[in-house]
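From the pipeline queue, job 12 of 40. The input is one protein chain; the requested action is below.

Action: predict structure.
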Amino acid sequence: MATITGSEVLAKALHTQGVNAMFYLMGGPMLETEAACIQLGIRAIDHRHEQAASFAAHAYTRVMRRPGVCMGCSGPGATNLLTGVATAFTDCAPLVAIGGSSPRVYLGMEAFQEIDQLAVFKPVTKWAERIYDAKRIPDVVATAFRQATSGRPGPVYIDLPGDVLGEKIEEESVRYAQAWKPSPRALGDTPLPYRPSSRPPASRSTRSRSRAASSPRTTRYRS
C-alpha cells in the first residue's frame, strides 16, 4: 500500500480547507510541509522573520475575509509568530498559526529548541492543540478552522512535533474533513424585507422647522 508522511497529510488537509496562500519562514521541521504545499498549488510567501509572516497572515485575513495561515519552525521560530498572533487575538481576526516542535519522544527532555509552545500560545489564542498522531492531522486542522471562525473569531495554534510530521502512514487510512465554510452572520447575510413608510416625505421647510425646534435655544447678551 502507498504511504504518506505527516507533512504531506498536513499540506493536503490545508488544501482541503481551501487554503490558497500561506506566509512562512522556511525551517525545520516544516520544510517538507512547505514543499508539499507548493506542489499542491498553495502560494507560499516566504519572509525574513516569522513576525512579519504572522502580520501578513493577519492582513490577509482582514482583506480576504478568510482565515490566514502562517508557519514557523520549532522553538524561537514558533515564538516569533507570537506578536502577530496576539495582535490578531485583540483584533478578533481568524488566523491559523502552525509551528513545528521537538519530537514527541523527546518532550520534557530539553531537546534541541524545545519550548512549551502550547503554554506560550494559549493566552493569546482561542484554541491551541498539539498533534501526537499523524492520522489525526486532518481532524485537528478542520477543528482549528472551525474554532477560528465560529462565535467570536480569533487566532488558533497547531503544534506539530517533528516525528509526527515525518511519520509514514497508509494513505488509504487518512480521511479528510469537509472544507471550511464561513458561518452566517446573525443580521448581515439575510436582507431585511422592505417596508415602505406610511407617512409622506417631509418638505424642506418642515425639516428646517423640526431641526430648529430640536436645537437648544441660545441667548444673546449685550454689554
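Job complete. Residues 23 and 45 are 5 Å apart (CA to CA).
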